[in-house]
Structures are given as C-alpha cells and as structure tokens.
Amino acid sequence: MPVFKKIPHTYVIVFSIVVLCAVLTWVIPGGTFDRQTVSVDGVDRSVVIPGSFHYTEKNPQTWQVFSALFDGFVDKADIIVFILIIGGAFWIMNESKAIDVAIGSVLRFTRRIGNRGLIRKIGIDNLIFLLIMTVFSLFGAVFGMSEETIAFTIIFVPLAISMGYDSIVGVSLCFVAAALGFAGAFLNPFTIGIAQGLSDLPLFSGLEYRLIMWVVISAVGFAFILRYARRIKKDPGRSPVRDDDEYWRKLHSAGQDKIDYHTPVSAWVVYILLTIVMIIFAVVHPMTSLSFGDRAAAVPALPVLAGLFAITGWITLKKSVHFFVIDLLLFTILYLITGVMGYGWYIMEIATLFFAMGISTGIAMSYEANKITKLFLDGVKDIMSAALIVGLAGGIIIILQNGNIIDTLLYRLSESISGMGRIASVGMMYVVQTVINLFMPSGSAKAALTMPMMSQFSDLIGVSRQATVVAFQLGDGFTNMITPTSGVLLGVLSVARIPYEKWFRWVLPFIVILFALGLLLLIPTVFMNLKGF
Fold first, then answer.
1. Checking CA distances to 4, which of 22, 35, 127, 325 falls within 20 to 30 Å?
2. How many CB atoms lie within 10 A of CB 352?
3. To 10 degrees, the CA torsion angle through 410, 416, 419, 420?
4. Is the pLDDT of residue 286 over 80?
C-alpha cells in the first residue's frame, strides 16, 4: 500500500493537532478577557466580563509541542489514573472468567425468550439494547455521566461482540447513549445548572421542553445505532473494526465447559466482610439525599443496598464464586450511582470503588497476593495506551492556553454573530459553541467562558437567555463523540481497541444528523413563551 494511502495512527493524528495548534499560536494574536469570580450553586467560578476583551502579547509555542505529553499528563492525571486502575481491576475480574459466565448467561437468556410472540417481532437484542441505552441516556441527562463510561466499555464491548455485533455497538450502548443524554440533558448540573446560573435564570427552568429534546435526540440516536447493529449482525464483514475486534474474541473465547464452577472458603470470607462494612456504612448514613436537578429526595439507599447484597451474595455464592463476582460488579455499579447522585463522587471515589472490587474479586477467587498484584499490573500494561493518548490529547489544550489564543478565538467567533436576525444569531451561537467544544470539551469550563458573554448578547438581539442556554447545551453535547481533545472519548476508544480514524469515519455521518437535529430543536426556542423561556 502506498505511504500516502495509509491511515495515520491515532497518536499521529493527535500529535499533528498539537503541532497545528502550536502553529496557530504564531498566526493568531494573543488576547484575553478580564475575569471575575461569581458563585454558581455555591461554587465559586471564574467567568469572563462581557466587553472586556483586549489584545495581549502573543506567546508562540515551539519546543512546547514536545512537552505537551508531559503537561497533558499532569493536567489529565485524574482521568489517566482512573483508566489505569479500571484496567487493573477488570483484568483481575477477567482472569476469574466471571465476565464470560455473565455473557454466557445473557446469550442463553436471549435464545430462550427470543422466539416468543411480540418479542420475536421486535427482536430480543433490540429490546436489550434499548433498555441499556435508555438507562445510560438517563444517566447522561440527569447527572452528566461521562468519565464513568470508560469502565462500562470493558463490560459492553465483549458482550456486544459475543452477541454477534462489534465493538462500535458495545461503545454505543454506554458511551454514545450517555452522550446523547448529555446533549439532551434536562437536569445535568454540570451543563444546564452552571449555564443557567451564569445567565441569571431559575435553576433547571424550561424543563418541559428539555424533556421533549431528550426524547427526540435519544430516539433518533437509538434508531441510528440499532440500524447499524442490525446491518452488522446480518453481515459481520461490513464492520470497520472486524479485525480490531479479534482481541476481544480471543480474550473471551473460553467455552463455558472449561470453567470450574465452585465456591472457595475465601469467597464466603469476602462476602461476610463486605456485608459487615456495608452494614456499618448503612448505620452511619441511614438516609441518603439523592439529587435530581434542583430537587433532592431522602431515601435509605445504603441500608437497602446492604440488605440486597446480603441476600444476593448468599444466593450467588450457593451457585458459584463466578456469579458472586458478577454480583460484586453489579453492586459496584449501584454504589457508583448512589455515590455520584447522593455524595458528589467523582473520578477519585469511583476509581477507589473499582479498585476495591478488583481486590475483592482476587481474594474471593483464592488468588495469592502476588498473583493479584501481577494480574493488576498486567491490566495496567494492557490499558496503558489509553492513558498515553489521553495525556497527549490533554496537551492540545495546554498549547492553546499557553499560546494565549483561546480568548482570541472566542472573541472572533462571537463577533461573527453580530448583525444577524434572531434565528440566524441563535444558530450561529450553536455553531460557535460546537466549534469551541472541539478544543474545549469540558462543559463546565466552557459555560464559565462563554455564557456570561452570550447571555448578554442574547439580550441585545431580542432572544431569550434560555435559547442561548439551549444553544450552549446542544453545542456542548454532540461533538463530544468526535473531538480528539476529549480524554473521555479517547479513553473509551483505547479501551475498546477502536482506532480513532475508524471511529471518526463511522461517527461523522451520525454527528451530521445530530447537528442538523439540534438546529431544528433550537429554532422553536426563539418563539417560545413557555415557563423559563
């Protein structure tokens, strides 16, 4: 194959973007907005002062393209460590063959009920996929699930491949579904909450229309994914990642007859210890305040989880330690959701939870300490490429920030909106937010940077501030599935073993459809007179 026809490696693509950004720091003049600190939902945030932009001395980047990897590692250290811990923990679980047992159980379940009446017409796979995607879309819409999908990728990719699909379908079940919910969010505190707070709007106002947006975006997204899945199921050779998925086929190729179903004494010890720990936490925290947007409900979450684990742990141990390990994974996910919604957990707490799951799995399987350590390190080595690419992508933002051109780009983009009609202006806000998201995928940071200025601008052109928030919300959401500066996207793709260039070709038509859909959903906000608009 001629050199010019070869597809560049993901690292080559990302490093090329780093170099391009460095070149831009020589071409684009430096500039900055003055900033002030404001309190949004009790959190102090540094936001720009509208009309305060002024040019500054530019700071062209040269040798910094080579330090971008180091700087990116420092900046994205939390996500990188999260990925490494997840990789190590799941490698221990993979050694236990519990995931293979779970996959086998799912396949037997689908075969058993797949030919029943209405289920046969709809398709049991479609029903399972719709259920999974709806859950993750809700997670994205309610509490902004993003980084957490890296862990779920290791679960759903092998499941999808074992069901006759490919890794793209597996990634779509969790990451893409959560991204759809993130774009159509109605209670996400990290986008809607911050953007409305900075725009002096009632928190989570306009909920009714956002619910409609979430339903429409999710429905269109799910239809696209199911259509692709059906095509791959019919002809696996059409999958662009057919060869790349060989890794997963080999990893989970062990037949169910090769698994030794048993329950060692160590598994009972783990069960008893974990039950005691859960009971202690349930006594200390008998009620948990679960947040849903601007509302909270006090529920006995930890006592309920402790009680359920005591029951399900006993039942699964009577069958086999493998089912107990699956139960550990299930309750890890349930505690993750409770921690995020009730106690404000983020990457550190979630990584700790999965680390404890991995150690508990190893002990339950009667592995020696040295074997658990070796398995953990093997998992870290196996997933190291995902950590490297996240660090390198983080260097892109560092180059732009150190070159003093981010504010200049924002100022030039906002100037392009002036002089347009209301619909065109809101549409351009959407475009501007989409472009900014390509090099600043953090929703909260982008809200602090753009919303103070955009909300003031909307007053001048006679457009509601809610319309501006919707433009921000949609512009912040869709391109998270394609931007090479997103550590979460590159982490998910690296874990799934999907080359970025293949993902880009697959997801680009999807992004175009979603972008057009977002524009259609944005237009009614210009004329609406609903609550909050």
1. 22
2. 14
3. -100
4. yes
Residue 3 has pLDDT above 50, yes or no: no
Tell which phi-psi region holds residue 60, choosing left (phi > 0), alpha (psi between -120 and 50) or beta. Answer: beta
**Sign of the dihedral defined by the CA atoms of residues 157, 80, 131, 507, in that order:** negative
> CB within 8 A of 264, min separation 6: which ones?
321, 364, 365, 366
β-strand partners of 125: none
76-80-83 Cα angle (round to 5): 145
Rounded CA gap, 214 and 67, in Å?
Answer: 41
User: Which candidate, 90, 228, 240, 217, places its Cα nearest to that of 152?
Assistant: 90
Q: CB count, 10 Å around CB of 268? A: 16
Beta bridge partners of 45: 38
Between CA 297 and CA 91 the distance in angstroms is 37
In this structure, which long-range contacts are made by residues 151-156, counting pairs with CB atoms below 8 Å and at least 24 apart in sequence? 151/86, 151/90, 151/350, 151/354, 153/492, 153/495, 153/496, 154/86, 154/87, 154/90, 154/495, 155/99, 155/329, 156/132
> What's the average model confidence in pLDDT over 434-441?
83
Angle between the N-to-C axes of helices 77-95 and 487-496, in degrees from 0 to 180, rounded to the nearest 10? 20
